Amino acid sequence: MSNKMWGGRFSAEPDGVMAEINASIDVDRKLYRQDIAASKAHAEMLAKQGIISAQDAKKIVHGLDTILSEIDAGKFVFKRALEDIHMNVEARLADLIGPAAGRLHTARSRNDQVATDFKLWVRDAIDDLDRMIADYQRALAEKALAHAATVMPGFTHLQTAQPVTFGHHLLAYVEMAARDRGRFADARRRLNESPLGAAALAGTSFRIDRKHTARTLGFDRPAANSLDAVSDRDFVLEALSAAAIAAVHLSRFAEEIVIWTSPLVGFLRLSDKFTTGSSIMPQKRNPDAAELVRAKTGRIVGALDALLIVMKGLPLAYQKDMQEDKEGAMQALAALALCLAAMTGMVRDMTPDAGRMKAAAAQGYSTATDLADWLVRTLNMPFRDAHHVTGRIVAAALRKCRRSSGASARTCSRCCRSSARSRAARRSAALRRKMSQPRPGAGSSVSGRPSGKRRPRLRHKSNRLKSFTDLH
Ligand code: ARG
User: Fold this and answer.
1) pTM of the model
2) Is the minimum distance from the CB of 35 to ligand 1 under 6 angstroms?
3) How many helices (H) and strands (E) does the chain have?
4) Res 12: pLDDT
């Protein structure tokens, strides 16, 4: 007989390649805790229902506890010939307690067993990840509080848009993380139905108590349909899709860390704890952890893709294809945990350069929107007109700046780089002077068109406004 567990009708050993492709023990050995917990719950239920004797159940439970401590202590010998964790545990149970071990698999199949084990494993992983995301949120919120008044440029299109604070920016990631936790919590809620009792696919002829095993294992209820119970892998897909979105969020922040720690930007500094050196360039400080968070998102999104593709062609009920659900998912969720730990560490470690951030926030006419708002509020201009007027002012200021600095760039390097604050003060003083001395008969227009031509009428209240275009 080839296999003690299922080899009754077989007369020859499997080919080496068959054994190789069939074995999943290298991956599913990680399910040992869940497998043993589910087997104990099943054995106790069988005894309660009078399906096996209380004495056999006691032996089984005791034997399973022994196996748990053997595996915990690294003393258990996993055998590839026994394919997977379920058969490794059961075979060892037989070594330990003899024939009573053979009663454990009554009213059960590896199909409902593996679905149960992996649900328990994913549920534990979700609980761990939730704790880690909460830690990450706490680190972000603490840093945000410390930098509630640290002004920095806010960006759209990676162009300076409007000033914000570093605290405000960090709190955006707290919100993303809150939604990530919500998605994992949702996945957990839907996952929490027990497949046990579905057996291979059609249930069992024994009078089992599915509610009992469900309750013992912390499930909300037994799964309603036995075919679905053994062939559902939505719980893995949902956990992976929550993980993929969470990883994308971390990756976006990691990308900002990479950009901001570049000497070209210099907004942020990571300590030696979260940077690495170069083997050839002694001056380098590389944000490797952030880069790897960004990169690991690939394998997390990839695991979701891979399992979607495995599942898409499977008829009901269990197919061996489903054995491929574990490796990618386990790696992906572990990668997410590592990314969360790294990001939490980096958030705690990071020091913003408040001076550089503030100077950058003052560049590029980042308060132009405030000026447009001021025109609306104070002069009752329609916002579209106020926007246009402000645009002209920005253009005029740029021209003036370029003329005086001889710069040809779109943004004048002279006034846009150094002492932005004093230059801004000089600019506004010049503006005020101009505003208070309208040129008689200048015929200027806020639209900047040559006088005499028709131009849009703006409902501004003050004549002074007309002189804005005199700056040209
Ligand atoms: N190792 C298998 C898996 O992970 C367990 C279920 C095997 N079931 C079967 N009918 N061969 O899917």
Assistant:
1) 0.84
2) no
3) 17, 6
4) 83
